[in-house]
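Problem: given the chain below (373 residues), write out its structure.
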Amino acid sequence: MALFEGIEGAVAGEAGIAHFGDPVREQRRLAAGDALAALADRTVIEVAGPERLGWLDSITSQSVGRLAAGDSTELLVLDPQGRVEHAAGVVDDGNSTWLIADAADAEALATWLTRMKFRTQATVELRPDLVLFGFVDGGSAARSLHAAASADGRAPLVWEDPWQHVAVGGHQYSEVVDHPGASLAWRVGILSADEADALSAVVDRDAVAGLLAAEALRIAAWRPRWASEVDDRSLPHESDWIRTAVHLSKGCYRGQETVAKVHNLGHPPRRLAALQLDGSDAVLPEPGSPVFAGDDEIGHLTSVARHHEDGPIALAILSRRAPVGDLIVRADGIDIAASQQVIVPADAGAVADIPRLTRLSRRPSAPDPRDAR
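Solution.
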């Protein structure tokens, strides 16, 4: 469903409206909670039936068997070697469990779930008729969405991204004290077509943001995504996804042995890093651009954005043995300097009780000269 297309300045991207003429301003308003982003790059899967939660619990990485109505989490589907195959946000309303998946993965995930039902009392249905809006909680955007969805007297269904906190049963490998995800209260509202039309009719250009803005906030929060950070080798440890999508002490599920082994022994083969890119070049490198330490290629970019405060930023998947210092990104024959912030340490899984470090972007204040007296 193409929403917000009629708003002046709308520029279409591959998966939806990329921006409305001023991505930086849209990003500021989105971060402040005063803009909505139509998430045409995601799709909803409805799982219904009395056995839905126990069944999902048995075949995915997350403990959802006792998920209460209105609660949110996220899950991964792993292959027998523990590699990530599918990912989805999860919210239950007491009657159905709603999975929010990247559009390119939704059909494959729904097909796999259907094949895994056997005699389980559950149904699986793709719901492309539903419309998703992303927003940051606490501002006028949340009030607008609630007003549009409450016209029939019901509260809107909203997925609360768990990335703000380490979930019960999860573990954070990042060693920073002030994790950037903690400050992003990201929400996704699930609306019917009529509710979405009602919402679209009352918002103006100042209250909307494009997908570029939503992606920039995600990347700045170090938040992994199936469409960007996952390939056919990805383990959840490598992108710190154990933080919110894997329950380390739940019962058996496919891939659990690898999850436990890598977590207990450490040393995942790759690790996610955040990069602050040199902003002197107006052109951003593309995802997939190689990353070098000297003459050695050590990884590639997975996500890239221009952040309204931090400038050009990126996430990159690197070899575990990659050095922790400054790196080079090579794009179209041009070398771009990149300052690295380690997200997942090389010995992730063996560092549970180490001191927490500050983020590179949180530079300490200069010492007071009076202290030397």
